[in-house]
Structure formats: structure tokens, C-alpha cells
Amino acid sequence: MAGASPHWRPTHRAGVRRCLAALGTLILGAVVVLTGAQPAAAATPWLTVSDGFASFRVPAADLESALGTVSNVVVEADFGPSFALADLGLGRSGDAWTSVIGPLRPGLYHYRIRADGTKLLKDPTNTGAVTSDPTWSTFLVSGDAASLLADVPAGQGGTLGTVSYPVGPRQTRSATVWTPPGYDAHRHRPYPVLYLQQGADGSRTDWLDLGRARQILENLAVRGRIEPMVVVLGDGDGPDFQPELRALARAVRRAYNIADDPAHRALAGASAGGSQVLRHALTHPGDYAYVGSFAGSLTDEHLRIDGRAVNAGTRLLRLYTGNMTDPAYNPTYQTLRTLDRSRVRHDFDGVNPDDGHTWNAWRENLADFLPRLFRPVHDHGPSAGHLPLTREFATPAPGSTPTPWLTRDANGDTFATVETGTEYAGAGRVTLWGNWAPGGSWVNVPLTRSGDRWRGTVGPLKPWFYYYKFIVDLVSKKDTANPTHITTEPTWSTFLAPGPAAHPLTDVPAGRGGTLTTLTYTSTVVAAERTAYVWTPPGYDPARAEPYPVLYLQHGGGQNYTDWVEMGRAKQILDNGFRDGKIVPMVVVMGNGNVPDFGKELLDNIVPAARAAYHISHDPARQALAGLSMGGFQALDLLKTHPGEFAYVGTFSAGVFNSTGFDVAAVNRGTKLLRMYTGNVTDFVYPTVLSTMATFDTLGIRYEFAGVTQGPHGWDAWQKNLIDFAPRLFRSDST
Q: What keywords is this UniProt entry annotated with (predicted)?
């Protein structure tokens, strides 16, 4: 099926080669930021968002007019696990570079185009912008979880203003000030005030552009969930935080009707801003009665803390952190212990299990923190679903094998840590490609240099089967410390994230599963000896009176007979299905379908060889045929050319392009089950499957549609398809 998809797909060798370039984002030299060199005409949006799926279509001509000729293009965005920044490879399809990802969690995303590793470009068709870095664009995926991020109706929001303040001789800086709906500059009772700091390497606009602070404040205000307050967004990245904060406070008091007493002042910040806030609260107790640190931490182990003074002057000190991918995770653990030793009263929001050191986490932190200000609060516990922080996150020493190193959180989700060898010490950029994007799609997560190695942690990963590789300076490399092996993809490694949901893919206890053997047969189609894998069920009896029913299970393009075992986990799926009483005893033959005439190969070569070597039925009613992608197309072709030869047919991400030639009566008479599967809209054959079903409806061919499998054109979907399909076979026959 090479050439049929605009998206990257691991089932096709040619597609792999074509899109390797789109996977890497090596910075070979200085990054060239080309925000000004925009396409002359870009009326058609490069991004469309529907039902949580983000579809990118970047016209090649527009890219070339802005950047010149490019050979690889990615979308760099917070699409990775825990909202981590990651690279989504775009594939060239006709006159555009395209890809689809999703379903995305509701929230705000930011992205930019990276071409040839060094050229950064803002999407000129998107008005969503990030002032502090004009290469980024933003978009919102709506949903209940993101309701606070939406704009309030016109006329119901607050107002933004600006104040300037001195930071040195003949030097001033500016801050943004939000005043609540109905703000009264002459109100008898001054408004309480929150000073909100951003992280390092940002600006005061980040809390607006990336933090959606205005929308969060206004939605909470409209719903009556916060006290009317003034919020000041300062830069906060000056060389001396405390004097600058005092200068800012004086300027705001002169311009706005705000309270001057500590009981009506609050201070909060994210990342480095959170660390500044926390240190100030502990070294200047009583300046601010309400303090929030979003993924900040104490960096001075020898800081002297007067617990009594802090407690006397602080009504609320609340700490936040992301999960094990958050660099603040371990420092937060240490900070909590320090506060306990100093007998400082504090709240801890718990570990956010789904987010790392990201704006998504800090938006949630702000939404939790604001309703706690300037009013009595009785709930001092963690947010719903947040986890305890009972120990630091630790990984083995450099060079420990095997990899990856798996750590599970209190929810049972897995965090996988990988490490390269020292052979890449001189690499310019290393990323980790794998199937951990939403829906099982593929993104590259940048790794961090650690001495003479590269390291990184991805997660949380739900229980399932994962595969990955390193991209080192745009070249795919195997994790040689991982002993797993994929015959058709020699740079891939695999691991299983354990848990109940991964039960069908888990090894059964030794001696409790079926037997996997190889079958050698002669192919008259390609004039060569070939090999198939054959699974026989536990207790297989070659002398049994009744022959076993048989399933012929085919792979996709660019693969071979090894893939259903090494990637599809077919043995584990069959072993567990049998042990759980879900599948009848059957024999499963996984042959090599890479031939110009698959019908002849199967019927003249694979089937006779299997019948000669195994005690399997010749009765079409006890024969099944299924395949993924190319193998599914082959199965449908056999259904057309040899109707009734296989009573059970399953197609995983496959369809037909030509509706002629079907003997409808023979198909319906000889087929007990024709069951069709497809991934979601990220599966490039999704439209083909839908059109095939429409064709079958018109022709009158009976079939079942399994519904959309949430996943792309990849193993995440096909494993689920086999798990569903195998238990449906041969149930009407005696076994």
C-alpha cells in the first residue's frame, strides 16, 4: 500500500524510509527563526481541529516561499505524554505536508513548524500567538476539562492594564494588571491583590498567552468562585527578585485601588517563579498571607527558616508538582520534608499524575489556587485524583542494563526511562520516537544530555505494549541495552507496561501457553523456500479424532511472518484468550504474504503445507482468514476470487477499491462472519474502510463493523482487533 497514505505508518518499509526525515529535528547549527518570512498568501488554515483531532496540512509551496526547499518537516508541540513538547512528523502528500493526531485531551496547545531541523516558522494562518516567542501558535481543544480556558461572553470579563516601575537608574519595566468585572477605583474597601510570577526564560505575557490566566480568572469570577481581586503579572526574572517585587508593588498601589496589608496580599509563581515565591515567603515571613508555588522548590539546603514566624504571617502556603517527568518532582519531595522539619504549616496539592513541568499543569494549579484566596477554606487536601508523594523518583546509575527502566505510580501507570550509550556523546540532538502519543500515534520526545549519554523519561503510559527507537542526528538507532528484537524493524525495541488492561498481551506462566513452531514451505510464486509461524493450542493432539479449525493470519506491507509474533503479540493474545476460555482450540498459521499473487501463495503453498504438518480441517466452514493493512486487502481479494473458501474473514484497516467482481450470493452463502475493523481518523485507510462498507451495503454483502478502534494505522489498533476477532471464530461448530 505504499503511497496510499499521507501519514507515517510503520507497516510499510517505503513509508518508513520516506518519513524518517520528518521524524528528526536535529539542530545542526544555529536555529534560524523565520517568523517574518511568511507565505505571501495563506488563506487556508494549516491546522483544523475537530472532535479533538488536530489535522495539519502545510502547503509545500507556502513552506518553500518562506524557507526555501525543505526535505523534512515536523510540528513541534506539546503532544507528548504529560503534555511534554514533542515532534510530530509530517509526511509529504502531493502538494502539502500533512499529519493527523488525536484524540487530544481538552486544553490549550502551542506548536510551531520546524523544517530541516534548523528553521522555525510560525503558522501564519493562526492568529493565536505567544508574545515572548513569536515562532509559536496556540489552539484550544474544547471540553469540560477545559471549560475555564474558554473566553467568557463579551462584556462579562475583567480589564487588562499596564503599569511601569523602576528597576534601576533610568531603567523601567512593565507589568500587566487584571482588574475584575465591575472594578471600582473608588471602592471604600480596597481590593486584595495577587502577584503572579512566570517561569524562567519567559515574560509577563506568558501567563496570558500560555497560562490563559485571564480566562481562568474571568470564568471563576463569573461563576462566583473567587473573591474580587486585582492580579499583577510581572516579569520577575530580574537579578534581584525582592527589591523588584517591592518596586512593582509600590507602582501598583499608586495606580490601582488595592490593599496594602499583608492579609490581603498573595504571591504565586510557576517553575523558577515558584521557587522565587517560596524562598521569599520563608525568608520574609508575613509579607504575603497567601503563597502558592507551582512546581517551584527550595534550592538552598542551608536556608534558615523560622517556622513560628512563617506560620504567624501566612494563612496559606500551598505547593504543587507534576509527575515523575517534572524536574520539580524530587525537589518538591525534599522541600516538603524541609517544611515538615521546620514545622511550617503548608498544603500540598499532591502529585498531578497526568502532567509534567508544563503550562497545562500550571493552569490547573492556578485554577485550584485562586478560589482559596482571601476567604475561609476548609478543604486543604489534594485535588481529586492527585497522588501522594512518598519518595523520590530514582533511576539506576549510568550504564545499567537492560533498559528501559520502568517505574509505576500509585495509579498503576508506567514511566519509562531510557538511556543511550556513550557512542552518542558527540551527537547534536537525540530524540525518542515511540507510540505514546494520543491514540497510540508516534511522536519524538527530546532526550537530555547527561554526561556522555542521553536520558529521558516518558509517561504516564497506560498498561499496554510499546515500541521505540532513538533518532540520533536524524538517523534511527536501536537501544542496544534493550534485548528485544524486531526482525523487520531492526532499530526498534519493545517493552510491556504492566497492568490489568495489558493482560491479553502479557506472557502466561511457563508451560501454560500454546506452542509456537515454524513451518517451512516452498513458494511456487517466488520460487523459494519460505517460513511461517504456527501456534498450536495447549494440549494440542495431532491424533485427535476431529481436526482443529485453523486461522490464517496475515501481516501488512513491509512486514513478514515474524511481525504478528514480535510486534502483534499474537502468541500472548492467543495464549491468554485460550486460558480465559474466550477462544476455542484452533491452529493459527502466520505465513509470508509478500508475493505478487497472494491467492496462489496461500491456496497452493501455505495451506497445503500447513495441512501436511498439522492436524487441521480442510472444511471451509472451519477455516478463517484475517489480515492487517495489506493482509486485510489480500483477505478481501480472496473473498472476491474464492468466495466460501474461508467461512470467517477479518479485515484490520483494509478495504476494497474495486466493487466489481463480487459474487454476492456466493459470498453471503459461504461466509459465516465477515468482520471489518478500522482505526480512527488517524488511520489513513479510515475513509477506505467506510467506503468499502458503503459498497457492501449497496451490493448486499453481509458484514459486521466492529466500530472504530481508537488508534492509528498501527499495532495498538491491530492487537485490539485480534483480541476481539479470535473469540468469534468457530463458535457455531463443535470443537
A: Hydrolase
Residue 42 · residue 463 · CB < 8 Å: no
- CA–centroid distance for 90 within its chain: 16
**Beta-sheet strands, E only, within 524-585:** 528-536, 550-554
Q: What's the pLDDT tens digit per position in 219-274?
A: 999 999 999 999 999 876 666 788 889 999 999 999 999 999 999 999 999 999 99
Tell me the Ramachandran region of residue 530: left when phi exceeds 0, alpha when psi lies from -120 to 50, beta otherwise: beta
**What's the full length of the chain, in residues?**
735
**384, 411 contact by CB (below 8 A):** no
- Please tell me the distance from the alpha carbon of residue 235 to that of residue 175, in angstroms, as a whole number: 7
Phi-psi region of 15 (alpha: psi -120 to 50; beta: other; left: phi over 0): alpha
Amino acid at 560: N
Residue 23 confidence (pLDDT): 29
> Is residue 353 within 8 Å of 409, Cβ to Cβ?
yes
Distance CA 557, CA 593 (A): 8
Query: What's the start-to-end Cα distance of the chain, in Å?
Result: 37
Instruction: Copy the grid coordinates of residue 73.
Output: 518537516
pLDDT number for residue 117: 80
Whether 715 contacts 11, CB under 8 Å:
no
- Identify any residues that bridge with 163 across adjacent strands, giving them in sequence order: 175
Per DSSP, which regions of 15-136 are E strands?
A: 32-33, 47-50, 53-59, 73-77, 86-89, 91-93, 96-101, 107-115, 119-121
Taking only the tens place, the pLDDT of each residue in 270-315 is 999 999 999 999 999 999 999 999 999 887 767 899 999 999 999 9
CA 114 – CA 125 distance, rounded (Å): 16
> The whole model's pTM is what?
0.90
Q: Which three cell numbers mark 592? A: 509470508
List the grid coordinates of 676: 471489518
Instruction: Please say if the pLDDT value at position 29 is more than 70.
Output: no
Q: What was the pLDDT predicted at 237?
A: 64
DSSP 211-263: T-HHHHHHHHHHTT-S---EEEEE---SS-HHHHHHHHHHHHHHHS-B--SGG
- As given in the structure block, the three cell numbers for residue 210 are 500560555
Q: Tell me the residue type at 544.
A: R
Mean pLDDT, range 342-363, rounded to an integer:
97
Inter-residue contact 718 to 40 (CB < 8 Å): no
Enter the C-alpha cell of residue 84: 511534554
Q: DSSP code of 424?
A: G
Share of the chain above pLDDT 70, in %: 93
In sequence order, what are the residues at sequence separation of 6 or more whose Cβ sits closer than 8 angstroms to the Cβ of residue 602?
552, 591, 593, 625, 634, 638
Least confident of 39-53, 100-114, 525-539: 39-53
How deeply is 161 buried, as exposed, middle or buried, from its count of CB atoms within 10 A (0-12, 13-18, 19+)? middle
SS3 category, 220? helix
19's grid cell? 518519513
Distance between CA atoms of residues 571 and 380, nearest Å: 50
CA distances to 296, 305, 306, 339, 346 from 343, in Å: 19, 9, 9, 6, 9
- Residue 454 CA from chain centroid, whole number: 21
pLDDT at residue 544 greater than cutoff 70: yes
* Distance between CA atoms of residues 268 and 275, nearest Å: 9
Euclidean distance between CA atoms 260 and 230, whole angstroms: 12
Please, what is the angle between helix 241-255 and helix 272-283, to 10°?
A: 90
Contact 530, 521 (CB under 8 A): yes
What is the pLDDT, as a whole number, of residue 31?
A: 46
- Alpha-helix residue ranges (DSSP H) falling in 553-606: 563-566, 570-579, 598-600
User: Given this model, what pLDDT does residue 238 score?
Assistant: 63
173 by DSSP, 3-state: which?
A: strand
The C-alpha cell of 1 is what? 500500500
| Ranges 26-40, 173-187, 239-253, 591-605: which has the least confidence | 26-40
Q: Where are the alpha helices (DSSP H) in 490-581?
A: 563-566, 570-579
